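Ticket #4471: structure export looks truncated?
Reporter: QA, pipeline team
Priority: medium

Steps to reproduce: submit the single chain below to the structure queue and open the exported record.
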Amino acid sequence: MNQSNFKNIGNIFGKIKKINYKKSNFVKLCVLIITVTLLFIMIPSYKNIESKYEVGAIWSSEDLIAPFSFPVYKDESEYEQEKKDVIRNIAMVFDKTDNNYKLKDSLEDLKYQFQNIFRKADELVNNKDGYINSEKLDALKQNVKIDFTFPEWEKLYSLHSNQNTDNNLSFNEFYNYLSKEIQNNADKDIINIDKNKITSKKITVQLKDEKLQELTDLDKIIDKNELLNDFENKFRSKFGDSLLVSSAVKITGKLTPENLLYNNVLTEKETQSRIEQIPKTIGIVRENERIISKHDPVNRFTKMKLDSYKKVRLEKIGMQDLILQYVGKFFTVFILMLILILFLYYIRKDVFINNFKLMIISSMILIVGFIAFLSMNIDLKLPIELLIFVPVASILLTIIFDSRLAFYTVTIICFLVAAIRGGDYSISFISFCGSVLAIFSERDIKNRSQIFRSFLFILIGYTFSILAINLIRIEDYQKLWMKLMFGGINAVMSPVIAFGLLIFYEKVFKITTDLTLLELSDFNHPLLKELSSKAPGTFHHSIIMGNLSEAAAEAIGANQILARVGCYYHDIGKISKPMYFIENQLDENNKHNELNPNVSTKIIIAHVKDGIELAKKYKLPQEIIDFIPMHHGTTLVSYFYDKAKNSSKEEISDLIYRYPGPKPQTKETGIVMLADSIEACTRAIEDPTPQKLESKIREVIRSRFMEGEFDECDLTLRDLTRIKDSFMKVLIGIHHHRIKYPDSNQLELVSNSAKN
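Actual output as written to the record:
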């Protein structure tokens, strides 16, 4: 790869780095494409007819006439039950083996093996008691493939040696008795599986000539366990000795093999043959026959006809129909997304511009859509569609943005849920009711724990909407209670999930919610405590500014909490040099009297940079940090500028006497700029009256407006008028004790004039 190729790659990466991911239209397009594509995949190919129908629902569409003849298929659950019945009642196939012809030889052979072992054991006996050593016996007992314990071997050897003093029973007598019992049971049919596993009352026997013979009575056959239990009972009554009984059971088990061997292949073949014989249909609908009439209730048989019509129609769909379905799916998603985009573009431009906020909305839509998709593909006989947590999205959208955006977005989400569930608008209605009430419950949230108060509102919404749907469809009470239970689970889980996801969104997308702002407004915050202790005048000034800004924000519809909290932190940079600011000087010794105006200006302006660094150190949100430079904008430090002009004969540029900006970018920062200047100016007014206050407020607002400080924010002339009026109300309340009212003589004169 030559140098020019490396240069081209470097240019590409350079362009990528220059992309403003927060506001880039390319990023917006990517978010839209990803959202539409994933939702398109989730929406199923339309498997319903005109609408979702269930037993008990009323057919609201026009009469449905069959365009072709089709069979009426049984209900899937009914057909599956019939299959289970066939499997349960199938006569399992066993292969018949004849073991009787070699039974006698086996008995004689085993007896010979025992005698051979005992004869060799006699040669190995090495003690006077006649007991054989266990280690030497191991090599001998391998010839008898029966797993005897050592005490059992000793007991059998004692029979051989005539040492059984209990009943003088010899080994030959013992073995002959066993042989007789084995031969007596030789004609029994013994199966090689547990008899309890056979669910039918019959089995099928495969004989040598491959003819099938069906045994009608399962009691005529036994399994090995039954046979050995029978032997054990007989041996216990015959011998009494537990070692002899256990030895006898092992010998009879060895010499009594199963003669009916389970044939899995033939059983499966027979089962499949029986299943294929189950009829899948229960009738036929002729061409031009009415399937259902308008306003008729959907009963069980009608639902079978509708399901059958849907199934046959889907089988007849060709490539052209599939393409049209895909087009329909795309338009469904695109139209809903377009409606949401238009709302954001025209009503919430601030959200539309911010790609991170668009990603938040997109992620919530996709999460809820994916849960709806899972509910369609998980085969459970439970109303899991009620666990589509749409209220979670409504809670998060209300807290992160506002109730209006949440209401609009949740409406779109509910339609998407209905589309993903194949036109199930009943769950859309239920989710909408619960989610809207959740929005109302979170409108005035003051702390994180209040998220959980939405539980009651969601529960009310789900309960009454589920009852409404149930009354329309006349569903049975068992299904109703099940739905109410799942609705209750949704109501409990939604606030919990929303609480966890809120923290996730705040950290990942670095968003500042009203809850974050409320936490920052606590005067116990370390930064505010430091401000109050080191710069008490600035702290008091900030609190009064907060009252002014909050009232003004409420008057023009801006974020009241953001404006108030922005005031609290707007001058935190003064912590580093508090005594260089007039509000913190307790005496008349002004430190700037000894400084050059240029140096004083640099100290004053430096508090902006110091404040930004301090805010970043304490990890304040960017929305709060913006107040620090923007509340000054590019205004002039007029006191020191005028002082410099008066003390110098040369012309002085005002550039070094201006704050670096930027100018206010939002309504809230514009309000704080005005509140900062007006609070300081009105505090200096001697003998304040409403007229003096209004005049000073009007002067400051006009000055900032003419200087162009509001050119980059959305404050209008109407907003400025409302801000002035709100400032007046607050300041009159603050200075009312200092306003001079007319004396008693003037009041009497006014009263007499009114009477005349």
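Status: closed, not a bug. The export was complete when the record was re-opened. Leaving a note from the reviewer for reference: Strands lie at 64-65, 70-73, 92-96, 189-191, 203-206, 212-215, 221-223, 260-262, 281-285, 290-292.
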